[in-house]
Amino acid sequence: MSDDTTEIETPDVETDGESTRYVVTHADEDAAVLRDIDSGQVHTLADNPGVEAGDVLDATLAPEPPLEIADRIVEVDSRRHVRRHESEEPPTAHEQDLAADQAVGELTRHERAGMGEIHVITVPAEETTEAVQDVLEDDGTLERAGRMENVVRVEVRSDEETGTISVRYLP
Predict the structure, then answer these.
(1) DSSP annotation string for 32-49
(2) Beta strands in the chain (DSSP E)
(3) Reduced to 3 states, what is the DSSP secondary structure of residue 117?
(4) Which residues of 71-85 are buried (b: 16+ CB within 10 A; e: fewer)?
(5) Could you give the CA distance from residue 9 to residue 123 in angstroms, rounded to a whole number?
(6) Which residue of 35, 65, 98, 105 is 20 to 30 Å from 167, comparing CA positions?
(7) Burial class (CB in 10 A: 0-12, 13-18, 19+), 111
(8) Measured distance CA(143)–CA(50) in Å, rounded
(9) Rounded Cα gap, residues 19 and 60, in angstroms
(10) CA-based end-to-end distance of the chain
(11) 165 touches 126 (CB < 8 A)
C-alpha cells in the first residue's frame, strides 16, 4: 500500500489495541468520522489529525479521555486515499455483454486483469444518471475499495441507453 504524503499527528500513547482498517467518511478542520470496514462501527474523532474524506487507514484508535465519548488515532500503519469519479468513457464491450445477461437490479462482480475488480450493475435506463450519483456518494463504494489492497481509484462508467453501470476498482 502506498502512504499518503500528509502526515497524521498521533499522540505518544502506549496501547494494546490492534490495527483495524477504517474509511474516513467525513472530515473537517475540527473532527472526522471513521467507519470500521469489517464491523461497520462508526468512530468520531475528537479532532482531525490530518485525515480527509476518502482516506483508507490501517490504524489503531483509543478513547479520548476524560469522557471517552470520542476516539483518537494512536497509530497509523498505512494510509491511502481513494478517489471516486465518473468517467466520460462508456462501459467496455465486455461489461455491456455481462449486463445483457443479467436482469435489471442485478450486479455481477468480475475480477479485473491485473488488480482490482469490476462490478456491473443494470438499472432502468431512465434511472442511470441518478444511480451513478448514488454509487459515487455511497460510503459502501468507499468501503469496498478499502477492502481491496492497492485500490486508490473508483471509476464509474455508464450507458444511459441500456441502463448499464460499471464500477471499476483500480490501482
Answers:
(1) EEEEETTT--EEEESS-S
(2) 20-27, 32-36, 42-45, 55-63, 71-81, 83-86, 107-111, 117-122, 153-159, 164-170
(3) strand
(4) bbbbbbeebbbbebe
(5) 43
(6) 35
(7) exposed
(8) 20
(9) 4
(10) 10
(11) no
pTM recorded for the entire structure: 0.85
> Does pLDDT of 78 surpass 50?
yes
Q: What percent of the chain has pLDDT over 90?
A: 81
- pLDDT tens per residue across span 98-154: 999 999 999 999 998 888 999 999 999 999 999 999 999 999 999 999 999 899 999
Residue 158 clears pLDDT 60, i.e. is over it: yes
C-alpha cell at 127: 434511472
Strands 153-159 and 83-86: parallel
